[in-house]
Amino acid sequence: MDILDAQNTDLVIFAGALLAAGVFAGIIAGLLGVGGGIVAVPVLFHVFTLLDLDKAIVMHLAVGTSLAIIIPTSISSLRSHFKRGAVDMSLLKAWAPAMIGGVILGSILAGFANSTFLIAVFASVALLVAANLAFGRPDWRLGERMPSGPRAHFMAGTIGGLSTMMGIGGGTFGVSVMTLFGYPIHRAVGTAAGFGVLISLPGTIGFIVNGLGVPDRPPFSLGYVNLVGFALLASASVVSAPLGVWLAHSLNRTALLRAFALFLFLTSMRMFWSLLPA
After folding, report:
1. N or C, which end of the chain is more exposed by having fewer CB within 10 Å?
2. Over the stretch 7-47, which tens digit does the pLDDT of each residue have?
3. What is the signed CA dihedral for 137, 26, 166, 47, rounded to 10 degrees?
4. Sequence ranges of the domains in the chain
């Protein structure tokens, strides 16, 4: 009886932690346009690690499940931003083909990569973007308007590919890129929510396919997508995403950028820590 009680207690703690993380992820998704993956990936990574799953698949499961969670979260966030007129639909349509192509390539590469590589990619890129947001000057520009043609296709494809391997929605790169080309922060955040939709749908399919038949996955897993983690985090994050949108339109530009940089920095440090030998 004591063993059963302990197992039930662990299950309640596990579910409660995922629900709390889902609320937090939803707020971050609406606030920063990042799809919540910047929160979901490290949370899932550490939860799966505590469950003593095979280290070779832990990061793949975290990334794949995060991408699945981003689908409803980013749709909810996109709808809320769209109602406020903060989404550049012309940019989304122009970038969609190259971005989806990058997602497909990123999914293929992730299928061959080991867990350590995916962790290193996540931590390194998150730290670079955080440093740019924290120490970059508001007047820094890569240009006065967004590029078009091959440059735009390359940027969209790169954002799609890296975001897929990191399990994030595209806002991590999209917000930074758009602001460096003079986009207002609120419009950049709203448009980045659209990137999350473009990335999460094909990215999730890719990780499902990559994980089919892989041994030692936790119960209720479809490929590299754990359905229990998806259900708990997604339900909580969809409900809380509109609150993040409200905060995004209530805070000023400096507060948004500082919040974005802080979350990226903390996430990067946690992932680097996990790479250190025990």
Report:
1. C
2. 556 567 667 777 877 787 777 767 765 556 777 887 788 77
3. 130
4. 2-275
User: For residues 66 and 74, is the Cβ–Cβ distance under 8 A?
Assistant: no
CB atoms < 10 A from the CB of 13, how many?
A: 10
Rg (CA), the chain: 18
Please tell me the distance from the alpha carbon of residue 186 to that of residue 86, in angstroms, as a whole number: 7
Rounded distance, CA 261 to CA 266, Å? 9
**Sorting pLDDT into bands at 50, 70 and 90, what band is 261?**
confident
Inter-residue contact 38 to 259 (CB < 8 Å):
no
| Distance from chain centroid for Cα 71 | 10
194-219 pLDDT tens trace: 898 999 999 999 999 999 989 888 88
What's CA 56's distance to the chain center, in Å?
Answer: 21
